[in-house]
Amino acid sequence: MGKRFLGVGLLLVIIGGICFNSTSQPAIAPGESSSIPILMYHKVSPDPRAGGLGLRVPPRNFEIQMKLLSNLGYQSVNLDDVVAYLRDGRPLPDKPVVITFDDGYRDNFYWARPILQKYGFRATIFLVSDQIGKTNAWDESRGFPRNSLLREEEIRTMLGEGFQFGSHSKTHLRLTGLEESKAREQITGSRGALETTLGIPVNYFCYPYGKYNKAVVNIVRESGYTAALTTAQGQVRKGDNIFALKRIRITGKYNKGDFLRLLNDTGEKL
Ligand SMILES: [Zn+2]
């Protein structure tokens, strides 16, 4: 009887130990970044004629968001830092954030840039190489407003100020619907064109409309890009595929609370 009681007691201690260990250990070692929010913006403009709030964040909201990041102690890192962390485990600041803009709208220069500079944040802009200095022609057939895109001299100014640029294809086509040779032209061609025009290495690709598949990823990899970004919602964490990095879409409809919730939503089940 006494022996049996001892046996049950020992079992309880073992189970207790297992449960205690699994709940008491921190999921993340102190100081180690667990997940990285890569914010995805498009237009930053106060003008409703520039487009709906799905893709347009009014500068007032953008400033509130940058101020919040700054007050909360976030530090902007670039994609080189993220790749070094994911591939080699190189440490990141405690609260890293990556700020990205798709399409290369001219309003990024006039509205977003001064606000980013005010708070000391860096950002990466994904350009549509054939459309530099032109407009978002790919949206016209869908009835979206026409927007001016960054001009070469504006991109050069931003380069000198520490902004990074990546490729968002040549003409913003859905790559998954293209023949391989056409997809290759969009992916490889845009890299070559941007590197020649701007005289900078172009190491990051951003899939137009967030559309990609295995074949597209292979071309991106073969073209010499280091990593690629999607529109899939979520934070980046160790072990993620660097050719399918998730982001957090920020629209003009979000208030402060929405922004904070998205920023903190690591998707972790504690
Ligand atoms: Zn786009």
Architecture blueprint of SSEs:
Layout: H1 2-24, E1 35-36, E2 38-41, E3 43-44, E4 56-57, H2 59-71, E5 75-76, H3 79-88, E6 96-103, H4 107-118, E7 124-127, H5 137-140, H6 152-160, E8 164-167, H7 180-198, E9 204-206, H8 214-222, E10 227-233, E11 236-237, E12 245-249, H9 256-264
Parallel strand pairs: 2-6, 2-12, 3-4, 5-6, 6-7, 7-8, 9-10, 10-12
Antiparallel strand pairs: 1-11
Descriptive report:
- The protein has 270 residues and is an alpha/beta fold.
- It contains 9 helices and 12 strands.
- The chain has a single domain (33-264), classed as TIM Barrel (Alpha-Beta Barrel), CATH 3.20.20.
- The protein is 40% helix and 17% strand.
- Strands 2, 5, 6, 7, 8, 9, 10 and 12 form an 8-stranded parallel sheet that branches.
- The chain is globular, with a radius of gyration of 22 Å.
- The two termini are 40 Å apart.
- The site of zinc ion has 5 residues, from strand 6.
CATH homologous superfamily designation: Glycoside hydrolase/deacetylase
- SSE string, helices as H and strands as E: HEEEEHEHEHEHHEHEHEEEH
What is the mean predicted local confidence, pLDDT? 90
Which runs of at least 5 residues are low in confidence (pLDDT < 50)?
9-31
Number of domains: 1
Cα separation of the termini: 40 Å
The CATH C-level name is: Alpha Beta
DSSP helical segment count: 9
List of distinct ligands in this structure: zinc ion
Q: How many extended strands?
A: 12
- What can be said about the biggest beta sheet? 8 strands, parallel
Helix vs. strand class: alpha/beta
CATH topology tier name? TIM Barrel
